């Protein structure tokens, strides 16, 4: 029993890294644009299908393929923001942007169904095979989990450096604090918004590749499962808090892996129950900067 | 209340096309229109006896009720709910479970509907107490979370039949007029909901809801007890959704977790309200009347599900980008402007 618990914790932490990355993109978009990108889930699946096409048809390694899929997803993000998010203004903006993202998600889902059908596919490479694993502290851990976790850490560090060590990052953080004031000191808020949306979506290329390689199969419908988890994570971590999203992601996946030992059917419910409990006690989420109620 | 509206109507032609300019037609014209709609709705299944058409009609009246109910909460209070399928599904399962365990069949199943509404309303109370503590994005996300919890619960409990779902009792009336009882039951629910929506909009309660939508903190400062007001609206909305869900279940004949708790349902009713005009009485009705038959027709014609999904998404984007306030408010504004133009021309002559 103790062994299973340790294994579950290891799985949770390793799997949580990828969710942390996807959630960081989502919460970054929220922080700068003040919108929830409901399409993030299906964009992850789109990223997974891009990796699938590259690896099956062009025989490009999954990790090397990211050099193609990351820029593509970035461009898709910028286009979505420019076409459908930017024009929305006014008092109903919160609902409008949310529904616009939902509509975009539906269209992408429909296109994926048309292109790939409802059958489940997986991403395969030598490191995704069940016997490709290393022994660490007496446990076997799949290579893909280790590689993916490493990649997620690299991506998070890059994101951190981008936000805290560059001029662009300073503009992003200024816009997060106060968009009007940022515009007044000469920051091009519209450009920052478009680029941030692009970056937030670009991380789904990494997330999608990892999800496709570790989830045991995905189809166009998998986006719903993903987005509901990601939403729970960013609310739990506190909207707009990147660090909070990471802690919440690892906490949630670990809790899910632990419950999965005893009650596999209810494991996913942990996500949502944790969310409800936290919001009853602390409506701002774990690391929320501002009171959600006062927004 | 009525006199106030009439005064505003009278004041309109006197020079200020203000508040009266927001109306599409005069009270007399409205009453005539309403009567016409009622007559058409009542004789519809007697004229169109084709089973396909009456099937679409049944689902349309059900969605008129649900979209109006959603609008009573989300449209008036500004709290966007993407979890109303929880109440719809609760109603469906309530009817299913009671009918199965108590061996209810035939006409008597209709008598279970108010009970289904009541159960959905009861479910809404704890959900509302948790979710209504937060606003905006967080509220939307919480409603989505509740939606997934409900779907998960329905697939894992023994009482709901798990993932194999529930079967409804088979109705015992003749095939020729099979859809009619469902149609009239749905029409009754829809008409009552629209009437309720109109009454609420004109009431003090409706004013409090709209004050919350415009600025909750200020409304609270002015003495609106926000929580009870929001919760009441949610419970009313859930009651209607439960009723409609129960009827829909008996009509369709089965309930599966993925089917009864469908994310597209939440999106569809929101789209109906946005299409016609969020926060108006007639908007969700118009939205349901246009969109539900279109969607059902397309599903019949195009055997591919994904095409109707792409279309739903595309229509939504078009509405949000080009008609953000909905068809009716935009039309009313255009009509008001036109009337003012004629007015000015009249003055000049």
Shape of chain B: globular
Structure summary, number of beta strands of chain A: 2
For the termini of chain A, the CA-CA separation is: 46 Å
Please state the structural category of chain B: mainly alpha
H and E string of chain A:
HHHHEEHHHHHHH
Biggest sheet architecture of chain A: 2 strands, antiparallel
DSSP summary: helix tally of chain A: 11
Largest sheet, spatial ordering of strands of chain A = 1-2
Instruction: Give start-end ranges of low-pLDDT stretches of chain A.
Output: 291-295
Largest sheet of chain B: 2 strands, antiparallel
Q: What's the mean pLDDT score of chain B? A: 81
Strand content of chain A: under 5%
Total number of beta strands of chain B: 2
What is the first-to-last residue Cα distance of chain B? 36 Å
Structure in words:
The complex is a heterodimer of chains A (295) and B (349). Helices cover 73% and strands 3% of the residues of chain A. Chain A contains eleven helices and two strands; from the N terminus they run H-H-H-H-E-E-H-H-H-H-H-H-H. In chain A, strands 1-2 form a two-stranded antiparallel sheet. In chain A, helix 1 runs antiparallel to helix 10. By secondary structure, chain B is an all-alpha fold. Chain B is 76% helix and 1% strand. In chain B, helix 4 packs across helix 11 and helix 8 runs antiparallel to helix 11. Chains A and B meet through helix 4, helix 9 and helix 11 of A and helix 7, helix 13 and helix 15 of B.
